[in-house]
Amino acid sequence: MTTSTISIPANCFNPKSYVKSHPTSGLLSTRHGDRLIAIPEVLLRSIPKILRVEAGEASYLALYTFGNNWGKTFGDRMVQDMVKYYRQPLLETISTEFFANVQSVWAVHGLGRPEIDFRLAKRGLVIVTIANSGIASGMTVEDTPTHRSFSLEAGFLAGWFSTLTSQKLGACATNWQEAPTSIQFLVGSVPHIESIERAHLDRGMLTPDALNSL
Prior knowledge:
Layout: H1 15-18, E1 19-22, E2 27-30, E3 35-36, H2 41-55, H3 58-86, H4 95-108, E4 113-117, E5 125-131, H5 151-165, E6 169-178, E7 182-189, H6 190-200, H7 208-212
Antiparallel strand pairs: 1-2, 2-3, 4-5, 5-7, 6-7
Helix pairs in contact: 2-3, 3-5
């Protein structure tokens, strides 16, 4: 009597199978041959400072726009990799499997650990908490923080979610008191996020009570 077994594929972004090293050149790539680069922390710290000197208040918009494009590219690459790996449309992926892949792809690219909370979904919002953010690591929190703080990562999340949903979404940081250990963001429609920024974040962070009352 033979026992049939079901082959369960490993996580798509397991670094042992996803990342390939090339000892002769010292380069890294994905299993599909796409180049991977490491961005030095000093560069991430320097870009916002230089933009602030050169562009003033407009530097926040520049960082958000850059992050938005980066997030869209990252999201599109993630979707393509998952479709190729599991050989099925993304919509057919089991939710637990999808979110496990999300955490793995964030980790393998050094972006931290995302937790996605849908408790405000009926109000058109998703709460995203990034632990040990690779993007925010080394960022300077201003003495009088505004909703523009961490605009690079907010743009990244807006672009990433926009790619997954095929909708134009916005994002903003709502709590950066423990940055970069833990940073909380809201993701939703652009008008909704902008209204929250105007009404609640012009003077600082959202308290838990204010967040739950949105």
